[in-house]
Design goal:
Helix content: 40-55%
Pfam families: CheB_methylest, CheR, CheR_N, HATPase_c, HisKA
Strand content: 15-25%
Strand order of the largest sheet: 3-5-2-1-8-9-10
Keywords: Chemotaxis, Hydrolase, Kinase, Methyltransferase, Phosphoprotein, S-adenosyl-L-methionine, Transferase
Largest sheet: 7 strands, parallel
Region (Disordered): 675-701
Active site: 15, 43, 135
GO molecular function, one term: phosphorelay response regulator activity
CATH class of the largest domain: Alpha Beta
């Protein structure tokens, strides 16, 4: 039965500006040969009815569905997260959860991507598009940790750069791309990943790569978890677009520097300050108990293994500082941070971190332990903390460990070791720790491979050293140059065939030796180690020392010193006496044998020092335990006599050496006396040149300091160049990828002769050409049109002269856009031309069609505007004539009513009707006057002038004085500022507003007029005001009857009345006239009110021309 293909899942996080990026991404989707689906996590407002699914459906060829709780994923589909829900993936299904009120960043990209990483592991793909904030960064970090693929939108193309830039800055992004090309890269990744997954896991070339990597880096990855290392290696192979490990091995053989890149790729330096806070809280409690047992002057030694960029050692230093407080100066603090990545250690030594790295730290810690740098806004560890932390390159699998430690922290390193290497490392930790020393491990790690060595302290991965019943031999490959994998049986057979019988005999004798030995020089410095020397040698505290005399047990130091001197003088094998010593509560016996090398190696002499372990039989041991006091005394006397005889021999040898040296010194003294006279005679000459030497010495000292500084700068520069070179390789790969995948276009470089030097892009396929067919040809001469050839030649020539150009040209039956840039690598190199073409035939045709349509619509609009202008003029004339013709009959009606009123007796009933007619005529007259005023607003051609609003309000108050006294009203205004406008119209505006406030009031009217100024960028939303101008905002507020809020917009309509004319007189034209005046002055008026609580009118009037 065929195994079901694993579905790749791409999680896409986006926020502000993400719709455009999502549209461009999904528009490129088409069929794929493997199972693959997309989950979109877009920040949305919880109150917003999302149309995202329908919008994306119109742009994507795949089905687009909104996620339902518990739905299973299907390949070749796009799933969209609904608003106000968080999303997680578990057991191949998607689960939605409601969010608490006012929750930001909903749904969370981090939350989903972290669950995706746990669920899909290496089949997870994370993409971060445009958006605010840092959401998604932790998610891509999680995907990167499990070997997935991560991409981010190029900040250059993102509307809002925060989210993609934060992901890029974390160093966890594999590729930075435009959304339009992401699908092609994801498809390419899936195809390559499938091929690598289906290949043989441990093919022969893979072993060869491991061996080369071990030889170059000094680190043997063969005991790391093979799945982890292979996953990292596969990512590098995928980035290089190579089909197999075999091809990658061939590339490494051709370019050994690729091993440096692979070494950095295999390493996963993921760390942070106080990672897993609750774990550090638990460690703090144990550290407090440990420090309480210390006394002033004691040393506190801590080792952080695999510290990467140093956050963990500095975290421990902060904890120690907080626990000891001001008493920290009374203790010797030594915190060692080690790693095999020199690049990460350099960053750790600098102690400079980004704002993102320290954002989770308490503000107190940031202020206390960091200095913020002004130039790049980063955070620098203070020297008071930094002085307690030392960083060193160290391979825990090879190098001798630090010893006499109080605490070892090794977090998230064991997850990359196989079981055997975990066991060996735990034995090293047990050896290095003091009694009751602590071991602090990662969240998902355990001591299971060597559970007898440590005792669990708490559930937060803190362990204490146990008293082990068994003593383990530790082997450090630092003294053994045999890195990498052991030879295969075939390799061994080949080697044996090339050996003589004497060589085989020598090999047999060598392997028959069971005693450990070291190779030393005349100074007793160890050069090589073979076998376990745990019983005989001890690694001391402090800096690493390889001197055999200083590392050997006290009982053997004198023995080795004497035998070495005899071997050095005689050149013969020296064998010592049996030495008895006690270790681990057991008696041990050893005999030292020293063999001088029969052939010299360079200028130094070398010696083999054998440690022959003596195993007494059982009867001897019982005899030793059961002898009487007298027998024991005799036995002890015998031992002391043997030691005394050896001491005498050593003293005799030492005396002979002294006598020999004395004779040599006497002869030398005579020579010195004769030379003394010569020195006296030359002394005067030396004194005369002394001043010259002193001055020269000062110059040399100055030059030496300058050279030392220059050397340090060169070293730093070399590191920068290495990093820059790696960046160039990555950028070149990215550039080629982008250039080769430009849709419907080409990118190329012309040399100084305008000949094709480089050409790439999918547009070449239309004309069946490639780089080799056109390389060295003048590009403009390839165009069949003479006109186009001349145009292109001029463009390229102008560009070569230093002028960038944008133009269009035709080739065959297509139209292309052309963008050229002068390319000059340095001042001595000739200027080349970098150009980009894009097929715009369809866009051009569409643009031409739009232009024709716009031209046609413009003609129609102009004709309509002409007709509207004529109609508007006729309406104005009609309003004016109609109003003027109505005034004369109205005056006559009013006059006759007045005469009739005088002629009728007082009690005549006709007087009632005549009063009604008189009032109707008065309203009619007011209406006609209002219409006349409204129609004249647009005809007023007076120029705008600077008006003081306080003076306008003075006139209004004066004209309304009687009415205000009648109503006992109060009008207040002060410092209203200035506006530009027509004075009479401003008077009409405020007169109408004040009269309205007086009219629609059933109590003592209080009218307040105030003003303030605003700039264009502070204008209210949904306004038609010009944001480039400054405005005077005048507010007229009263305590009248007010109005319902829903009438705030239509209150300004002509003839609009909210109350009956019998209760409140008026024409319904006042506020319409106000709005007309404000609009003529390029402003805006708004109304707000509430029944029984008054009305408020806000007027925006421009202050400048």
């Amino acid at each position: 039965m065929q195994k079901q293909e694993e579905t790749y899942v791409m999680g896409v996080g986006a926020s502000a500006g993400g719709l455009n990026a999502l549209s461009r991404l999904l528009a490129s989707f088409n069929g794929t040969t493997h199972s693959f689906c997309v989950i979109v996590v877009q920040h949305l407002s919880p109150d917003y009815k999302s149309e995202l699914t329908s919008i994306l459906s119109r742009r994507c060829k795949w089905p687009v569905e909104e996620i339902e709780n518990g739905c299973s994923i299907q390949p070749h589909r796009v799933y969209v997260t609904p608003p106000n829900r968080s999303i997680e993936m578990k057991d191949g299904k998607l689960f939605l959860k409601e969010l608490p009120p006012n929750y930001k960043n909903a749904p969370s990209a981090d939350q989903f991507l972290i669950s995706l990483a746990k669920e899909k592991q290496q089949y997870a793909i994370g993409a971060i598009l445009s958006g605010f904030g840092h959401d998604g960064t932790e998610g891509v970090r999680a995907i990167k940790e499990v070997g997935g693929f991560t991409i981010a939108q190029s900040p250059v193309t993102a509307e809002y750069q925060d989210m993609p830039q934060s992901a890029i800055d974390s160093g966890m992004v594999d590729m930075v791309l435009d959304p339009a090309v992401m699908f092609d890269e994801v498809t390419h990744y899936i195809n390559n990943h499938r091929v690598l997954q289906s290949s043989t896991p441990r093919e022969r070339s893979l072993d060869a790569i491991f061996e080369l990597l071990a030889k170059r880096s000094g680190t043997d990855f063969s005991k790391y978890k093979s799945s982890t290392v292979m996953r990292r290696m596969d990512k590098r192979i995928e980035a290089l677009r190579l089909p197999s490990h075999t091809e990658y091995y061939k590339m490494i053989r051709q370019n050994p520097k690729e091993l440096d890149v692979l070494f950095e790729t295999v390493l996963i330096g993921i760390t942070e300050f106080f990672r897993n806070r609750e774990h550090f809280d638990a460690l703090r409690k144990e550290l407090k108990l440990l420090l309480e047992e210390k006394r002033p002057g004691d040393s506190i030694r801590i080792w952080s293994v695999g510290c990467a960029t140093g956050e963990e050692p500095y975290t421990i230093a902060m904890l120690i500082s907080e626990l000891l407080g001001e008493n920290i100066a009374n203790y010797q603090i030594q915190i060692f941070g080690s790693d095999i990545d020199e690049r990460a250690l350099n960053k750790a030594r600098r102690g400079t971190y980004s704002a993102k790295s320290v954002e989770k730290l308490p503000e107190l810690y940031i202020n206390k332990y960091f200095d913020k740098t002004e130039e790049d806004q980063k955070y620098q560890i203070r020297k008071t903390l930094k002085k307690n932390v030392l960083f060193s390159k160290h391979d825990i699998t090879n190098d001798p460990p630090f010893v006499k430690l109080d605490l070892i922290t090794c977090r998230n390193l064991f997850i990359y070791f196989n079981n055997s290497l975990q066991k060996d490392t735990l034995r090293v930790f047990h050896y290095s720790l003091k009694e009751n020393g602590l071991l602090f491990m990662g969240k998902s790690e355990s001591i299971t491979p060597a559970s007898d060595l440590f005792v669990k302290v708490n559930e937060f991965k803190v362990f204490r050293k146990a008293d082990a019943a068994k003593v383990y031999n530790l082997k450090f490959s630092r003294y053994n140059t045999n890195f990498g994998h052991s030879k295969t049986q075939d390799d061994k057979k080949t080697a044996v065939r090339n050996m003589s019988i004497l060589d085989i005999a020598k090999e047999t004798l060598y392997h028959a030796n069971e005693n450990p030995f070291v190779i030393i020089n005349d100074e007793a410095e160890i050069k090589e180690v073979q076998g376990s020397l745990r019983l005989y040698l001890e690694i001391g505290q402090g800096a690493m020392n390889h001197n055999l005399l200083k590392m050997s047990n006290k009982e053997m130091s004198l023995e080795i010193r004497g035998l070495l001197a005899q071997a050095r003088n005689s050149g013969k094998i020296q064998v010592g006496n049996v030495i008895k010593f006690s270790l681990f509560d057991q008696l041990h016996f050893v005999r030292i044998k020293i063999l001088p090398f029969i052939y010299p190696m360079g200028e130094e002499n070398h010696y083999l020092v054998f440690f022959e372990r003596i195993e007494p039989d059982g009867s001897y041991l019982r005899l030793t335990e059961e002898v009487s006091t007298d027998d024991f005394t005799d036995h002890r006397i015998l031992e002391l006599e043997q030691e005394l005889n050896f001491a005498r021999e050593y003293m005799q040898m030492f005396t002979e050496e002294l006598e020999t040296n004395n004779e040599e010194l006497q002869s030398l003294n005579e020579e010195l006396q004769s030379a003394n006279e010569e020195l006296k005679s030359s002394n005067e000459e030396l004194e005369t040149s002394n001043e010259e030497l002193q001055s020269a010495n000062e110059e040399l000292s100055t030059a030496n300091n300058e050279l030392r500084l220059s050397n340090e700068m060169i070293i730093e520069r070399e590191e920068d160049l290495k990093m820059a070179n790696r960046e160039i390789i990555r950028n070149e790969t990215l550039y080629r990828t982008i250039s080769e995948n430009i849709p419907n276009g080409t990118v190329g470089i012309l040399n100084e002769f305008l000949e094709v030097e480089y050409l790439a892009g999918q547009g070449m396929a239309r004309y069946n050409i490639d780089l080799q067919s056109v390389k060295g040809k003048k590009l403009h001469e390839l165009n069949p049109s003479e006109t186009e050839r001349s145009k292109l030649h001029k463009i390229f020539s102008d560009t070569q002269a230093g002028q960038s150009c944008k133009a269009e040209f035709s080739y065959m039956d297509r139209i292309y856009s052309l963008h050229t840039i002068p390319l000059k690598l340095d001042e001595h190199s000739p200027t080349k031309v970098l150009y980009l073409t894009q097929d715009i035939t369809e866009q051009k045709e569409f643009t031409n069609m739009l232009e024709r349509e716009v031209s046609h619509r413009t003609e129609q609009l102009e004709a309509t505007n002409t007709k509207l202008a004529e109609v508007n003029l006729n309406l104005q004339q009609y309003a004016y004539v109609a109003s003027h013709d109505l005034q004369e009959p109205l005056r006559k009606i009013q006059m006759f009513i007045a005469l009739m009123h005088k002629s009728l007796p007082e009690n005549d009933k006709s007087l009632v009707y005549s009063d009604k007619v008189s009032r109707a005529a008065a309203r009619m007259a007011a209406l006609v006057n209002g219409i006349l005023e409204y129609s004249r607003i647009n005809e007023d051609e007076r120029e705008f002038e600077v008006l003081r609003l306080d003076e306008i309000l003075d006139h209004v108050a004066e004209d309304c004085d009687l009415l205000m006294q009648e109503k006992n009203a109060r009008l207040s205004y002060q410092d209203l500022g200035e506006v530009r406008g027509i004075e009479i119209q401003m008077y009409q505006l405020f007169l109408n507003l004040v009269k309205n406030a007086l009219k629609f009031n059933e109590h003592q009217p209080v009218i307040q007029v105030s003003s303030h100024q605003v700039q264009g960028d502070l204008l209210p939303e949904n306004s038609d005001l010009d944001p480039g101008r400054n405005y005077n905002v005048i507010t007229v507020q009263d305590n009248g009857i007010g109005f319902k809020p829903e009438y705030a917009d239509n209150i300004f309509e002509m003839f609009k009345r909210l109350h009956s004319k019998d209760k409140y007189a008026g024409t319904g034209l006042g506020l319409a006239l106000c709005r007309k005046i404000v609009e003529v002055h390029k402003g805006q008026i708004r109304a707000a009110g509430e029944e029984g609580k008054g009305a408020k009118f806000t007027i925006y009037l421009p202050m400048d021309k």
